[in-house]
Amino acid sequence: MHYSWIRLSVCLSSLLWLASGAAWAACEEGTHREGKARYIICRPSGLWNGGLILYAHGYVSVPEGTADPNAWKKQLALPGGPSLPDLVTQYGFAFAASSYTKDGLAVLQGVEDTMDLIRVFKSLTGATPSRVFVTGVSEGGLIAVKALEQYPGALNGGLAACGPIGDFPRQINYFGDVRVLFDYFFPNVLPPTAISIPASLISQWPAAALLIGQQLQANPLKVAQLVSTANIPIGLSSANAGDALLSALWYNVFATNDANSTLGGNPFDNNPRWYSGSLNDWLLNLRVARFDAAAAALVEMGKYQTTGNLRRPLITLHTSWDPVVPAWQESTYAKKVAAAGKSHLLVRYPVPRYGHCAFNEGEVLVALLTMVLHPYSF
Description:
This protein is an alpha/beta fold and 378 residues long. It has 2 domains: 8-167 and 306-377, Rossmann fold, CATH 3.40.50; 168-300, no CATH class. Helices cover 42% and strands 15% of the residues. The protein has 14 helices and 8 strands. It has helices at 8-12, 62-67, 84-90, 107-125, 139-150, 168-185, 199-203, 205-218, 220-230, 241-263, 281-287, 295-301, 328-339, 361-373; strands spanning 25-32, 37-44, 51-56, 94-98, 131-137, 157-161, 314-321, 346-354. Strands 1-2-4-3-5-6-7-8 form an 8-stranded mixed β-sheet, with helices on both faces. Helix 13 links the parallel strand 7 (314-321) and strand 8 (346-354).
């Protein structure tokens, strides 16, 4: 549910015209960043077209990464199909991806870890890529945008899919809002509060998720109010509400403690918020749990914000009804780009569909082709 890779690899198989005669991947794995991150670098065993595609993976929770240091690589596997590196290199591109030097909230580390792949590639191959592109999904989408804004001289373009690229604090507040409103409508289901997650809840999440699902199914009126007050995108079918709520709650449960630690305190703040959309908004706002963000966390979150000051082309993909990273993230970023006078470098592909990173091959192919053929990417 929380893995946010897209079928980038399948789409790249259509790029045959970019390189003929290329063969399957020759991959090397190792560590970099003082041994704190793992990389995979793959090259075509035949003709290389000179291009290098960097891939920033999505969120890996601390429990997942602790249990399996290779958990991030699961996002490179396609169900019933070949791997992303195989399909990329089959048609002439080199491929590089890395874990991050920390699990959980790893945007700042992810930018540097991903950019360091260029150095690793040069060291391993003795070759300098003619063009380098950075791509990413979900958390990796924000990493891709931050990298493109910070290192335009090293990159030719980027593709950010379903990432919180517009307003990072607002994304934090979205997850927090979903949790406090869930606790209001369904009290005593999740312990204890939106900003304090016990280890027992994390370890017993499958059972907790089952209980949540049962509660949601038994109380459709409460579900409707929760979706309305939290502004959770569910698309054109109310049947999506259960999946949407569980998806958003997963991030509250698995990401909150690490976010608090990484940001220097609780980043969630809903004290000034007026929630609306319930049958009794006055009662809701009187009784819903309220929290103040720590001053240090508010300052630290500034480092996770994007500027919109593009100097290389960026392609964005976002579904219209994404319950994890709502589509207003992409439109908010577009406003930043416009304010910076850089709209000519942004190509937006909104996808009218429910789901987090729920793109098909054709949609991603168009985005990739736009990225590599954009006149400002040469």
